Amino acid sequence: MSAATTRSRTPRTPDRLCVEAVELARAAAEDAAFPGVVGEHVSAVAEGDRVVTHYFEAKEPGYRGWRWAVTVTRASRAKNVTLDETVLLPGSDALLAPEWVPWSERLRPGDMGPGDLLPTDAEDLRLEPGWSGEDAPPPNSVVSAEMAELVEAEYTDATDVADVTDPAVTPVVPARGSIASVAEELGMRRARVLSRYGLHTAADRWDESFGAKTPMAQAAPASCVSCGFLVAIGGSLGQAFGICANEFGPADGRLVSLSYGCGGHSEAAVMPAPMRPAPPVLDSMASDEFALRPVADPDPTPSDLGHS
Predict the structure, then answer these.
(1) Cα gap 201→204, rounded to integer Å
(2) CB burial of residue 202 (10 Å; 0-12, 13-18, 19+)
(3) Could you tell me which of 227, 303, 292, 304 has the C-alpha nearest to residue 265?
(4) Which of 66, 71, 201, 279 has the smallest CB count inside 10 Å?
């Protein structure tokens, strides 16, 4: 093993002149901050050959456990110690700010206000591609050739009535009878639609707020599936959810689970009374009358009639 390798593995010995430059380091720390907030000298750590970092306590409010680190050095064979850098560093028990989280992950329901915009990630798992926008029908479709002729005839008649040749004033409307017009009429002309994952996460979130496990539903006289205030919705969600239309209910205008319930059930006042149990065979609730004193017989029978 070479001598250079041996020296590199041995612990560095702090330079004596750099270690003694405590006042120079303190002055640099106070110049970076201001007098009175630089505390006691904590330690001096050797960073390299003739390079030492002095640590001082930081007394600024809100910086508990932080330390002022001032690095000093000197040139080879020089006796003057010079300043290298001054920085405020956290210690092992320092009070640190929480880890930074992107705004898209910090956002919570209810944070958006009027005028706020929330761009959606292109790879959002809650969405999936919707109708592609292709307007070329299959060859065997009924809207292929014959419907195209009808659309062309309609367009010719419309141009005879009004001048719509100017593209600046001509509205971009899907041709009648085309796939685009049918998709727009059915509300399907969207670039992306809700995916199965997005549907399930939304259903779980709504069921947690207005579902069967809530305290309100546990104390309800009946569930929403039999309530007259429930407005049915379409699609697959209609099999498990509806909209509450009771203005006095806690979920008015909200999407509620069919198993949810509250005291505002439409039949709560006319619900059949619970059946009473049958009377007991042994009546232990009635009382028997007992006389406090013996009652005298008004017509006593003589016990000794004499000998015949």
Answers:
(1) 5
(2) middle
(3) 227
(4) 279
